[in-house]
């Protein structure tokens, strides 16, 4: 008798947990840079109360997280495109109050309607990540342009042109065009 009660409690808890969402991989299906909101499609399937396996629905009006400090007006922004992978985080509380200041009227804890997205979830590594790890550096890249910042140097590369800053020198590979005055202190050294 006690074992049956324990089993029933376990079944009830498991059924209740099926409706709680926390985080999952997903895909951006559309993004509006003006609002910072996306429509996302969670990967995978869920099991309905009738036992049927179904794909997760798309979630709209999802805030997208960027590394930005709004109060200081600084941060990093990058393109977000349909097809990009993301991690979908489902808020423990409703987002109504955060979004608009309106008090929440329901109790949609851990509900998909309170999802947030962080773009950049990778299935595998990338050359940029390998380089950053190998050199203990921050790497920012866009196509063939790249800026690498490490403790020893800052290097900006665009195609065959490179600007490298170290504690000892500033080195430029490629043509140098100056529009304006050049002033210097110290001696000029030949190549």
Strand order of the largest sheet: 5-2-1-8-9
SSE sequence, one letter per element: HEEEEEEEEHEHEEEEE
Helix content: 10-25%
In total, the number of strands is 14
Broad shape? elongated
Please give the largest β-sheet: 5 strands, antiparallel
Keywords:
alpha+beta, single chain, five-stranded antiparallel beta sheet, 191 residues, 3 helices
Give a quick rundown of the structure.
About 15% of the residues lie in helices and about 35% in strands.
3D architecture notes:
The protein is of the alpha+beta class and 191 residues long. The protein has three helices and 14 strands.
Give me the secondary-structure topology.
Layout: H1 2-17, E1 23-32, E2 37-42, E3 45-47, E4 53-55, E5 59-63, E6 68-69, E7 74-75, E8 85-90, H2 96-100, E9 115-119, H3 127-134, E10 138-142, E11 145-149, E12 153-158, E13 161-166, E14 170-173
Antiparallel strand pairs: 1-2, 1-8, 2-5, 3-4, 6-7, 8-9, 10-11, 11-12, 12-13, 13-14
